[in-house]
Design brief:
Transferase(Phosphotransferase), domain 1; about 350 residues; alpha+beta; 5-stranded antiparallel sheet; Ser/Thr_Kinases-Pseudokinases; Phosphorylase Kinase, domain 1; 5-stranded mixed sheet
């Protein structure tokens, strides 16, 4: 009887871990290397991965990297305590805490990976650890393997960040650092100073990047301005393939509402047309500096798309191309060629 009860209790515990997912996570941005000043800055991490200051908390303890046994219950919140490898003393994890030893400057904390700038200047993506939910941690590592596979499939290409190293054991991906950050932030900060020629170039380069993916039967599944990066010459590169569909495989990402075609069904294998719809919304953002229906509630945007109602494009540059993308009447090659023609005409 006892072995049966133990087995049932183990099964129930595993199911609980699978079903329990925290709404948010917290992170300590840093821990001073001096044991006297261990008052790390606490921050909440929302779904966007942004850091928001939330206050100070006192901690004192002896060094420890992780608990020896997996936790038995899932906490309401997870707190990540980031420490440098040089730190002498840092607190052992209490319930709900995870110690993360940083490799460099943290640039972003996404849904799957931590992005850091290494002392070498390169960027490393590390799957987010979560000892409280091994299946979730396994998913993060799976997404990193998918992303690495895409980089290996493509090889060196001007529309992709350069792959420096892939560590199969740790599932860490090292890439070149792109100085001008993501397209969304750059346009928000410099909208008034961006020339039409540069906007056309970015739109063409985005279409070129999609062509590379689609030719390899890769569907990105999460097109948005934050997933395009800019190098020192302001040339565009597509990134973040962890949620992609490879050769018909199930994706782990879904497009944001304003980049998602009407009738999108998570249970249906994605197709290239899904990315093309997102490309239309991306070009709209590049030209206007705003998302489609930016001031409209997300639920209402979904209903408008379903009713075949899209933002007015009468005064938007490349409006015809955008509308054709939204109706999925073109492919990425046609979009690229059309934008190339416009680019040449502007240079005359």
């Amino acid at each position: 009887m006892f072995p049966l009860w133990s087995w049932l209790r183990s099964i129930c515990s595993n199911i609980y871990h699978l079903l329990s997912t925290p709404n948010r996570a917290s992170i300590f941005l840093s821990l001073p290397s001096s044991p006297i000043e261990q008052q790390p800055l606490k921050a909440d991490i929302g779904h966007s991965g942004n850091f928001v200051k939330a206050g100070l908390e006192n901690t004192t303890a002896t060094p420890s990297l992780e608990t020896s046994q997996p936790p038995k219950t899932y906490p309401d919140d997870i707190t990540y305590i980031c420490v440098s490898a040089e730190s002498i003393n840092y607190p052992p994890p209490r319930h709900g805490e995870v110690i993360y030893v940083t490799k460099g400057e943290i640039l972003a904390w996404g849904g799957t990976a931590i992005v850091e700038r290494l002392p070498s200047g390169a960027v490393m993506k590390t799957p987010i650890p979560n000892p409280y939910c091994p299946p979730e941690e396994k998913d993060h590592r799976r997404n990193m393997r998918v992303e690495a596979r895409v980089y290996v499939m493509i090889g060196d290409h001007p529309r992709m960040p350069r792959l420096i190293c892939w560590d199969e054991e740790t599932c860490c991906l090292t890439l070149e650092y792109l100085e001008n950050g993501n397209l969304g932030d750059y346009i928000r900060q410099n909208h008034q100073n961006i020339t039409l020629q540069l906007r056309i170039r970015w739109s063409r380069q985005a279409a070129e990047a999609l062509t590379v993916l689609h030719n390899l039967n890769v569907i990105h599944c999460d097109l948005s301005p934050r997933n395009f990066l800019l190098d020192s010459h302001l040339d565009l590169k597509i990134a973040d393939f962890g949620g992609a569909s490879l050769c018909g495989s199930d994706p782990s990402a879904t497009p944001a509402i304003r980049f998602r075609p009407p009738g999108y069904d998570w249970n249906v294998p994605p197709v290239s047309g899904d990315d093309i719809f997102g490309l239309g919304s991306l070009i709209y953002f590049i030209m206007t500096g705003s998302y489609p229906y930016e001031e409209v509630a997300s639920g209402e945007v979904d209903r408008l798309y379903e009713a075949d109602k899209f933002p007015d494009l009468s005064s938007v540059i490349c409006g015809n191309i955008i509308m054709q993308c939204w109706h999925r009447q073109v492919d990425s090659v046609q979009v690229h060629d059309c934008l190339r023609t416009i680019e040449r005409e502007l240079s005359l």
